[in-house]
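Reviewers asked in the last cycle whether our approach scales beyond single polypeptides. To address this, we selected a multi-component target totalling 1548 residues and predicted its structure end to end. The input consisted of the following lines:
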Amino acid sequence: MKKVEAIIKPFKLEDVKDGLAEIGITGMTISEVKGYGRQQGHSELYRGAEYVVEFIPKIKLEVVVSADEVDNVVKVITENARTGKIGDGKIFIFDVEKVVRIRTGETDEEAI
Amino acid sequence: MKKVEAIIKPFKLEDVKDGLAEIGITGMTISEVKGYGRQQGHSELYRGAEYVVEFIPKIKLEVVVSADEVDNVVKVITENARTGKIGDGKIFIFDVEKVVRIRTGETDEEAI
Amino acid sequence: MKKVEAIIKPFKLEDVKDGLAEIGITGMTISEVKGYGRQQGHSELYRGAEYVVEFIPKIKLEVVVSADEVDNVVKVITENARTGKIGDGKIFIFDVEKVVRIRTGETDEEAI
Amino acid sequence: MENLNDVKYILDSFLMIIMAVFVMWMAAGFAMLEAGLTRTKNNTVVLLKNIVLYSIAVIAYYFVGYNLMYGDGNSFIGSGFALSGISYDDHSLYADFFFQVVFVATAASVISGTVAERMKLIPFLIFVAILSAIIYPIQGHWTWGGSELGGLLSGFSDFAGSTIVHAVGGWAALAGVLLLGPRNGKYGKNGQVRAIYGSSMPLATLGTFILWMGWFGFNGGSQLAMGTKADIDGVALVVASTNMAAAVGAVTMAIITYVMNRRIDLTMVLNGALGGLVAVTAGPDNGMLAATIEGIVAAILIYVAVPMFDKLKIDDPVGALSVHLINGIWGTIAVAIFNPEVSMVAQIKGIVVIGLFVFVTSFVVWYALKLTIGIRVSDEVEYDGLDQHEAGIESYPEFAKNFR
Amino acid sequence: MENLNDVKYILDSFLMIIMAVFVMWMAAGFAMLEAGLTRTKNNTVVLLKNIVLYSIAVIAYYFVGYNLMYGDGNSFIGSGFALSGISYDDHSLYADFFFQVVFVATAASVISGTVAERMKLIPFLIFVAILSAIIYPIQGHWTWGGSELGGLLSGFSDFAGSTIVHAVGGWAALAGVLLLGPRNGKYGKNGQVRAIYGSSMPLATLGTFILWMGWFGFNGGSQLAMGTKADIDGVALVVASTNMAAAVGAVTMAIITYVMNRRIDLTMVLNGALGGLVAVTAGPDNGMLAATIEGIVAAILIYVAVPMFDKLKIDDPVGALSVHLINGIWGTIAVAIFNPEVSMVAQIKGIVVIGLFVFVTSFVVWYALKLTIGIRVSDEVEYDGLDQHEAGIESYPEFAKNFR
Amino acid sequence: MENLNDVKYILDSFLMIIMAVFVMWMAAGFAMLEAGLTRTKNNTVVLLKNIVLYSIAVIAYYFVGYNLMYGDGNSFIGSGFALSGISYDDHSLYADFFFQVVFVATAASVISGTVAERMKLIPFLIFVAILSAIIYPIQGHWTWGGSELGGLLSGFSDFAGSTIVHAVGGWAALAGVLLLGPRNGKYGKNGQVRAIYGSSMPLATLGTFILWMGWFGFNGGSQLAMGTKADIDGVALVVASTNMAAAVGAVTMAIITYVMNRRIDLTMVLNGALGGLVAVTAGPDNGMLAATIEGIVAAILIYVAVPMFDKLKIDDPVGALSVHLINGIWGTIAVAIFNPEVSMVAQIKGIVVIGLFVFVTSFVVWYALKLTIGIRVSDEVEYDGLDQHEAGIESYPEFAKNFR
Ligand SMILES: Nc1ncnc2c1ncn2[C@@H]1O[C@H](COP(=O)(O)OP(=O)(O)O)[C@@H](O)[C@H]1O
Ligand SMILES: Nc1ncnc2c1ncn2[C@@H]1O[C@H](COP(=O)(O)OP(=O)(O)O)[C@@H](O)[C@H]1O
Ligand SMILES: Nc1ncnc2c1ncn2[C@@H]1O[C@H](COP(=O)(O)OP(=O)(O)O)[C@@H](O)[C@H]1O
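The resulting structure, written as structure tokens, was:
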């Protein structure tokens, strides 16, 4: 099994989630993160002066899937999260050694 | 070393933490996440209409332990986080290549 | 490619980020987490009684880099995040199987 | 102190002053309510709009509006500026001005909520200036200014402004929102209505309580006098019935949503209370029973109007049209029902004439703004949130910045 | 304006009106305080409870309660409804009603905090209706209504309601909480007390400031007149001593917690200020020294009572029992200490008779509710938070929903 | 009620009472504003400071300060304590005291913001006690107390306290901050200024609205009488011009920041409104045009002063020095410009004499505190946030604790 971890623009979450649901992915976990990268942070105005803000709000999406689904998942995320502008984000893929479903104790493929 | 990553119901955190402490696990990191899965989101009421909320608050617990402790840790988490109802969550296990303790520079097993 | 995941003290973030920028790291993702470890939680005062708080605010920093940069990155984080007091945090290193840049579809080293 | 007439002068003036302080406070209520019902990413601009709109209304009404409303002029419009040529025998001029000026800000605040989260800041503020300086005072001249538009509005009765303040704000908002369009994402591709949740129920509730409190000044002060037993009895009845209408509006909505959904919908309850307040405003002197019925009907109207506006794809984040426009009209009609001395024809004439005037003039102004500087932010700004681009600072700016 | 008697009539009525506005504002204070001291997941229901309880109290007291309290009737209970048969020569009837009605809401608000985070919304609201329509007015008939319960309560002195409002709320809350039980997780398996932290110190502090401000209306208005020099001197002393008691309560608690813990405990300081306010309420006309001592003792009592209630496993998230019940009793006793004309026996008789009556009747009502529709939410609802199940919306509803 | 003189006595006293209630409310405004503009990790201490400083000011001024200000004594200082030996023929003593005591708290509140986020709680509170008991009353004795410091301050005119309250707070704050130093991280190694973002724009805005509302009491009540037509006309003009100055301050700042940065800077707009309020305070009776100009200049001064203080490495998280000190001075000077009867020399003498006295005495007190118990928290406490170490509870304490 693999974990697909995607850093995306927040307003793209809904499209990505819907896209994943369409290909039968029914579980995922998301969290709010801040990203730093090529995308220029914007300047802020506070107490009369301007400051550059370097960290930009992003959503981290984590989906654990069986190895053969990975390419499909990556494709769906890429398509749905893309705006074409800098800052669209990245996808990272990791190997998962084991999965357990807490409720039933099922493991691995059955637990996803 | 392995990283055990568990997505659990928030109100189970204290039991899980106490359970882990009992088997000698003294370090862990938690964060607030939102989960999407088999557990039905509830319906919300806003401005006179009902909407389904699909993301449910969860806690992500990350514990890095030596390989031989993994089974024990999984067992403790499973037992303490289980309610038997859908949505109890999942445990994912990853390989950790290296660990460093920032304060001392110790590495790997010594650093956990 | 490797993912370097560091749990650090929040007020050290800026130094660490600047340090990484100096060695040419231009992408990273951070999130707010709570840590539990050797560092003693402090006692809190609420409604006239004292309670121990065990979870301490930390920042989790995630940087994906090519394998040969890992040591350098670890060194920079360690140096910049260290205060010498308990609770400075940990660095965990994971293998990353694949990286995709959503905007362009570039993969692996090119995508970082 | 020379004689009892002086006492009356003092008491009447003092009533206006103290009640105006409570009405001013409503500006904070509108700000908190709107901030609570809109998204965090737009909250700084919401706050900015509310404090600056109040300020602009004060300045515009002082230099221009008050005279167009209360200056001599003709039956269409008053004359002069900066209070020139106006004086009163029976109460302080500045007490009168201070009480009137806070009402203008209320009308302007109504608009703010409806156009929230996608209107540009600058054209909004320009509109507020024009509304406060010209549009509001002209129709005010016909009614409270006493000109009756050459008799056309004679017999029209609006105690504290269900039409003159609240529906006026509502019409101006409606004209704006029709040209502005809904927030991105509010209506799905297949026409379904989607929820865009507000940022904070505590702020929304605090805002409602502030408005409720301020309304005692709004309606109670509109008695404009307390120097006789009849007047103070009037003030007392007005505040008691104002309170009643709000309470009934809230409870009615709680019952409706509980019956329909087995749960009570907080934001609708807040709207219910405010709807009761708007409805009672035209006739808070008509007794407790009138107030009770006005509150019941107000809640029902809002419960029907909120989804109706959504069906029409008129996107109103805070429900201001349902609360202020619909119930402004209902409250004005209710006067003819509960007060035998007021004719229904006169009321409807007033509603229509003022509504038409304000809607048309507002539409023209909004349209001119749209053609020139534009009234809507770009999609990108809407996604990022207006705060970043128009205010330059988020509403809770700390995260990932303040780690020093 | 005809004569000086009219002026007195006007001034007395106006005092009640304006002070009632401040008392109404306390509803917002209770809402913010309770929201700040309870968990985010229950905050929408907290807000809902507070705005609806105020509304229900207004309606119930108007149609039923006011007459049971001030209508003729017999020495146990008044008669009539909707103000029927009641009139006053010396001030506006509606000013009187408006001032009284906001007090009922205060008594009901006290209960809300104690039963927070696990009581069902609907039975709570039913209880509020019964309290406001029947229980509160009956004991009010004996005291402020003047019946003295056939002489049993003659000589009992409670200026603005330490017993009649605050302890009454406290007794009703105590009866409820005994049948309700503590929040899950508050007390550990081995009896240890665990902290359940509130959601927001800014809201809790804002709520306290609002209550403090409102209390000037509560106590100052209870002079009920300002048409003579003696009366306005009375109002002035009352507001000054009210302010003093609150300040002393806050500072005393700051000192106590600093001495005990080397840190100052904010939520206890807030309770300290409120305790001082409750304590001074029975006799704010007894001078600044009395107020000072009442404030000191109030803070000490709260510091002792909060852990005491926890030891008894009476779980009171906001400390309402310590603030309103304990200090309501203390304040009533203090009158006999500081005012030589008031007998300690009369005070204790009043405390006991009213306390018994309210506790027993409330217990019966709560018990009936428990047996019929139930008063406590299920464990699952308590875990999820009441907001999801009873209101259908979280208090900060945005996250993971509003990414459009 | 016997005669018209009694009516005057009553009305004057009532004005003070009711306006004092609004001024008291400003304490909440300062608390919310400071909490909004400082970091979450220090917010509990901010709230604690604000409620306890108000309380200490009340107690210190009652037992000591009021007499040093208004007691007979000599031309430097008054005598007696706890109101001993003071009485008035024409209004209630306690109304006078109540109105005065809330002003002291305002002066103390000004300091709180400037020293926020790094000053220890206990020495701050000790300073407030000394300021309220001694420093503020002594200079108040020279001015409002009427002693004129043996003629040195004769002709000095400060209607509601631009100098006597606001600049006094500002001078005391300046003395403190010079000894305290800036927050860690505010100024970079190479002298660059870094932003330390506040926690909440809604709280900061709410605080500003509260202060704005309270200011009607502050300035309107400072007429000190409404028992004649001239007096109530005075009150009316005062509240209208107070409102105007604030509105103009806000709008001017909105324009300035829009022109300079293409965006409107909310926190500067809030400061602009407050700066207008401080500036108009010395002469709110000088007409609407004066108020307008005072507001314009106030905003410009703040826009210049905020970066100037940063250049001097005087770190003032909320901008209190720019708002209260700079504009307190400007407002006092403006009186001589707009009121032909007031001499510029007298105004400048007043500004300098009072400024010197307060700055020097405050400096001595702060210095003594620094040498003894220390005034600054350790770096570790500053990093962790003061809340953890001085209050023992975070401002939003729930996360990772309340999962039961
Ligand atoms: N090396 C990296 N490690 C971890 N996260 C990264 C890395 N590079 C980029 N990111 C994340 O991806 C986001 C987008 O990257 P950015 O360079 O701004 O644009 P793009 O995705 O178009 O290349 C960043 O905000 C950050 O959260
Ligand atoms: N494939 C997955 N990848 C990542 N997280 C998942 C995945 N499936 C489930 N989760 C997480 O686990 C939580 C519980 O899953 P769910 O399907 O609701 O119930 P159960 O744990 O009983 O199978 C989800 O809310 C989500 O956070
Ligand atoms: N085994 C572990 N797994 C995951 N996170 C850990 C682990 N041990 C420590 N941490 C994280 O590192 C932080 C610091 O650890 P701690 O033991 O307090 O001090 P030190 O870093 O000096 O060893 C903790 O707060 C926690 O977030």
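The interface with chain B takes residues 3, 17, 26-31, 64, 94-103, 105, 111-112 of chain A (CB under 8 Å). We regard this as preliminary and will revisit it once experimental data from Aim 1 are available.
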